């Protein structure tokens, strides 16, 4: 069904934090507090240049891959947070 928004609805702005989207007892939060990913910086330090455009944080890349494997999803097809939240509302 096609719904049209009037101009006042289009101008509304909503501020939301990612913490509001992920429940406190979610598995992703538990992984974040349990696993220390800081060792990755030492492993990849020589692979990154000091000049040029800023790169994507290697820890973020590893975390995305880890989440894909854990939840068996291809996160590039759907928005990551919503896909994870809908798929598993796990409380351990």
Descriptive key words:
6 helices, extended, 92 residues, mainly alpha
- The overall pLDDT, averaged over residues, is 77
Percentage of residues in DSSP E strands:
under 5%
What shape does the CA trace take? extended
Largest sheet: none
* Total E-strand runs: 0
Stretches with pLDDT under 50, minimum 5 residues: none
What is the rounded Rg? Answer: 18 Å
Helical segment tally?
A: 6
Structural class: mainly alpha
Q: What distance separates the N and C termini?
A: 40 Å
List SSEs in N-to-C order: HHHHHH
Helical content (DSSP H or I, runs of 4+)? 40-55%
Provide a quick synopsis of the model:
This protein is an all-alpha fold and 92 residues long.
Report on the structure:
- This protein is mainly alpha-helical.
- The chain has six helices and no strands.
- It starts with 6 loop residues before the first helix and ends in a 5-residue tail after the last helix.
- The mean pLDDT is 77.
